[in-house]
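Regression test case RT-17, inverse folding.

Input:
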């Protein structure tokens, strides 16, 4: 019996570990629920709900293939090696297959499992790469180093994708025996309704195809306007591995065969977003210290944060007095999702206007996002805070009022999420709606203060430890 160990790869298609496991079958499958670990990792209740739904779809699909899915609860990753070894002995399993993950705790978990297996000499863990388009460590400069700037990283990726990377997704595995009925799965933790997002592979694929067929060609024009439904909405599915980045690019290429030659069109700009995700994953693997809360740019330790708990509370509640920031935070709090342009605006406001440590915002986002993904969340926050790899220059400080006027010109998005608050004020026209109202900080003052505080990053540019 072979064993497939599922993690954030809750799919049958394009799953190299599952594919190989079933080639060597018969196969069984296992998934570990780790409540204390998830709490440490700030996994959002809405993401746990999506996870539960996705697991049940996966379980049903595995059952059709005659594969039993065993769901075992342990508190933390530290409990997994012994539990996994015990399970394998009980079921006479010697080979375990899994797809690797990029985060520090996950990498250390796998090392601990392999060390235990090496000691007892009875099992082996075989790891595959299913999360990135290209293996971390393979996108390198001519000097053999990791790129520190996104654009040359992207160009190298495009060349590799054109020349030698096989983007053909792995097929779903063949049946391993007679169909069975796996029991339904309940994760007994706090959850928040996630039904706005697909949880099955088939529904996720349909969402991808709909985006490719009807929206991606206009993506470059519409993606920054939060009142429009112009983004793919695939982030939650990518975060849990219901679909892979490789599948997204493969099916995009079917519709746009010259995609990798690059023009400033919607499909290319969306591909860039997938490559930003890739960039942050490669950075995470090659700089594991940023997975432990450290700044990528070591000079950032000299930033003096104000860290006002009162201001942070107002930001979390969407009560800063800046309409676009407040509407965005309401969107996050109510729906578990926030438009990408608004993530940048809110992160910039917290770190630059309020001088609050980016780690506070990173944690809050992770605790609420249905698409919470450590590498992308960390990368985005460090970008906005000017502490990261290829970050926004420290002197570029978003003006939330101008952002509002530019990307929500008629105030449509603001009105969706601040309607009750706006009713308490006089009728606002499309110009007035963008103006701060009882703001917790004045923009010009906040900008000058931030420039002074962040000037510690000025000398000789980026440094990494």
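Golden output:
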């Amino acid at each position: 019996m072979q064993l497939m160990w599922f993690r954030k790869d809750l799919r049958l298609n394009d799953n190299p570990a599952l594919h190989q496991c079933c080639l060597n079958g018969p196969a069984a499958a296992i998934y570990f629920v780790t409540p204390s670990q998830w709490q440490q990792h700030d996994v959002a209740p809405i993401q746990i709900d999506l996870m539960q739904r996705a697991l049940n779809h996966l379980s049903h699909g595995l059952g059709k293939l005659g594969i039993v899915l065993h769901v075992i609860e342990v508190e933390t990753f530290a409990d997994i090696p012994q539990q996994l070894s015990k399970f394998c002995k009980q079921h006479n399993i010697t080979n375990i297959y899994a797809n690797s993950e990029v985060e520090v705790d996950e990498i250390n978990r796998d090392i601990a499992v392999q060390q235990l297996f090496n000691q007892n000499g009875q099992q082996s863990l075989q790891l595959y790469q299913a999360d990135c388009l290209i293996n971390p460590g393979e996108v390198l400069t001519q000097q053999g180093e990791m790129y520190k700037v996104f654009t040359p990283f992207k160009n190298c990726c495009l060349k590799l994708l054109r020349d030698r990377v096989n983007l053909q997704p792995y097929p779903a595995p063949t049946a391993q025996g007679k169909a069975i009925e796996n029991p339904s799965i309940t994760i007994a933790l706090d959850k928040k309704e996630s039904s706005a997002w697909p949880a099955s592979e088939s529904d996720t694929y349909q969402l991808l195809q709909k985006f490719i067929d009807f929206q991606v060609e206009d993506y470059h024009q519409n993606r920054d306007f939060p009142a429009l439904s112009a983004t793919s909405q695939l982030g939650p599915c990518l975060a849990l591995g219901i679909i892979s980045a490789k599948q997204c690019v493969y099916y995009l290429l079917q519709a746009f065969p010259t995609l990798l030659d690059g023009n400033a069109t919607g499909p290319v700009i969306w591909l860039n977003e997938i490559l930003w995700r890739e960039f942050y994953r490669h950075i995470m693997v090659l700089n594991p210290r940023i997975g432990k809360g450290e700044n990528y740019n070591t000079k950032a330790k000299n930033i003096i944060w104000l860290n006002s708990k009162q201001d942070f509370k107002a930001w979390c509640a969407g009560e800063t007095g800046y309409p676009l920031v407040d509407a965005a935070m309401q969107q996050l709090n109510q729906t578990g999702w926030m438009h990408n342009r608004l993530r940048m605006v809110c992160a910039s406001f917290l770190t630059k206007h309020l001088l609050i440590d980016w780690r506070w915002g990173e944690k809050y986002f992770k605790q609420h996002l249905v698409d919470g993904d450590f590498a992308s969340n960390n990368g985005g926050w460090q970008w906005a805070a000017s502490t990261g790899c290829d970050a926004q220059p420290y002197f570029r400080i978003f003006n939330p009022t101008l952002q509002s006027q530019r990307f929500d010109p008629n105030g449509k998005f603001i009105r969706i999420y601040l309607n009750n608050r706006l009713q308490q004020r006089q009728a606002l026209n499309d110009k007035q709606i963008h103006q701060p109202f009882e703001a917790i900080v004045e923009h010009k003052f906040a900008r000058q203060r931030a420039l002074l505080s962040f000037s510690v990053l000025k000398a000789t540019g980026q440094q990494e430890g």
